[in-house]
Design a protein that fits this description.
348 residues, alpha+beta, Beta-clip-like, 2 domains, three-stranded antiparallel β-sheet, 39% helix
C-alpha cells in the first residue's frame, strides 16, 4: 500500500473541543507558560515582557527556552500580520535568537487527529492563542494550523508557539534549523527595533516580485508581501527584479561549471556575490555557500585553505553540523565527495 500523502480532516467533535480553549478577551494578560488567565501574574523581572502565574511556570519556561530570548526579543502586534517578533537589543550574526521545542509535530494521514487528541490543556491553550489569517476574531483550529505550520523533515508538519509568530520577508535576517529543539539563528546583524523575519519561500532568491507574491499567495495566503524588497519604488523594483533573475542565471551557470569547466567558477562566484550584495542578501548562509562553490574551482593551496576556513567559520556561526562537517572533511587532493553542486538540479 502506498504511503498516504494527504492529511485527513480531524473529526468535528475533536476540533470543537480544542476550539473551546480560545480566549474570549485577549486584553487580559495570561501566564506565558501555562497560558492561564489570572489576577495575580508576576512579570519577568529581567525582560519585563512576559508574565507568569508562579515560580513553577517561570522555572519551566526558563528551561523551555525563555533563557535564550529573555531581553532579546518581544512579541508585538504587527499591522496586517497579526503578531510578530521584534528585536529588543542589537543581535549579532550567528547569535541564537530563539530555541524552542515544537508545540505539534505530525505526519500526513491521520497524524493530525492523533496529535490533537493527545494534546495537553496547556498545548490547546497555546494553539488557540495563535493567529488565524482567515478569521482573526473567531479563530479555528484548522485556520491556525494553515496559517502557522512549517514544513518539517520526512513529510511532517511542525507548529511552534513562538517561532510560528515569525513573519515572512524576501530579505530575511534569520534562518530556522531542522533540529529539535529548533533554533532560530541570525544570518546578519539585526539592529534593535527591527522585526525578526525569515523567508517562507526557498526559491525567493531567484524570483522577481510577481513570481514571489504569486507563490506566497498560493502557499501561505499572503496576497501582497510588504517586505523591504517588495515595497520599493517602481524604478528600484525593476532593478531588484532584474537582479534576482540574473542571480538565477548565474546559479545555473555555477551548477554547470562545477560539472564541466571549474575554471569559470571564480568569475561566476564573484558575479553572484556582487548581485547578492546589491540585493542586500550577503547573509551568513549565502556567503557560506559561495565559499563552498569556490572550493570546486582550481585554487592554490593557500587559496583553498582561505575559502575552506572562511566557509567553516560561517558554518559554525550557523550551527550547521552538516556544513561544518563538509568543510572539515573537504580535501583538495580528493575533491568534493558530493554536494548540491555535484548533483543534478532542475531549475524552473
Amino acid at each position: 500500500m502506498e504511503n498516504v500523502s494527504v492529511t485527513f480532516r480531524p473529526p468535528e467533535e475533536l476540533l470543537q473541543s480544542i476550539a473551546a480553549f480560545r480566549r474570549d478577551d485577549e486584553s487580559i494578560p495570561v501566564c506565558d507558560e501555562c497560558v492561564q488567565q489570572s489576577d495575580d501574574l508576576k512579570r519577568c523581572t529581567q525582560c519585563k515582557e512576559v508574565w507568569y502565574c508562579g515560580k513553577k511556570c517561570q522555572s519551566q519556561a526558563w528551561k523551555n527556552g525563555h533563557k535564550v530570548w529573555c531581553g532579546k526579543i518581544a512579541v508585538r502586534d504587527i499591522p496586517g500580520k497579526g503578531k510578530g517578533v521584534i528585536a529588543m537589543k542589537n543581535i549579532t550574526m550567528g547569535e541564537v535568537v530563539i530555541t524552542e521545542k515544537p508545540l505539534m509535530l505530525f505526519k500526513a494521514g491521520n497524524g493530525l487527529s492523533e496529535c490533537l487528541s493527545k494534546m495537553s490543556d496547556i498545548g490547546k491553550r497555546r494553539l488557540m492563542s495563535l493567529y488565524d489569517r482567515d478569521n482573526e476574531n473567531e479563530r479555528t483550529v484548522l485556520g491556525i494550523l494553515l496559517t502557522n505550520c512549517l514544513a518539517g523533515r520526512m513529510a511532517t508538519s511542525v507548529l511552534y508557539y513562538l517561532i510560528s509568530r515569525l513573519n515572512h520577508s524576501c530579505v530575511p535576517n534569520v534562518l530556522i534549523d531542522q533540529q529539535f529543539p529548533t533554533s532560530v539563528i541570525a544570518i546578519r546583524n539585526i539592529p534593535e527595533g527591527a522585526e525578526i523575519v525569515w523567508c517562507y519561500n526557498g526559491d525567493a532568491l531567484y524570483q522577481d516580485k510577481h513570481t514571489r507574491n504569486r507563490e506566497l499567495e498560493q502557499g501561505w495566503s499572503i496576497a501582497n508581501c510588504r517586505c523591504l524588497c517588495c515595497t520599493l519604488p517602481d524604478d528600484q523594483q525593476k532593478v531588484s527584479d532584474e537582479t534576482r533573475i540574473l542571480l538565477k542565471d548565474v546559479e545555473r551557470k555555477l551548477v554547470n561549471a562545477a560539472k564541466e569547466d571549474t575554471k569559470l567558477i571564480p568569475e561566476l562566484a564573484a558575479q553572484k556575490h556582487q548581485l547578492m550584495f546589491n540585493e542586500g542578501l550577503t547573509t551568513a548562509d549565502n556567503l557560506a555557500y559561495l565559499a563552498r562553490d569556490m572550493l570546486h574551482s582550481p585554487l592554490t593551496e593557500k587559496g583553498f585553505e582561505k575559502y575552506r576556513n572562511d566557509g567553516l567559520e560561517l558554518a559554525k556561526l550557523l550551527k550547521d553540523e552538516a556544513l561544518i562537517k563538509y568543510f572539515e572533511q573537504f580535501n583538495q587532493a580528493v575533491g568534493c565527495r558530493g554536494c548540491f553542486r555535484c548533483k543534478p538540479h532542475k531549475f524552473n
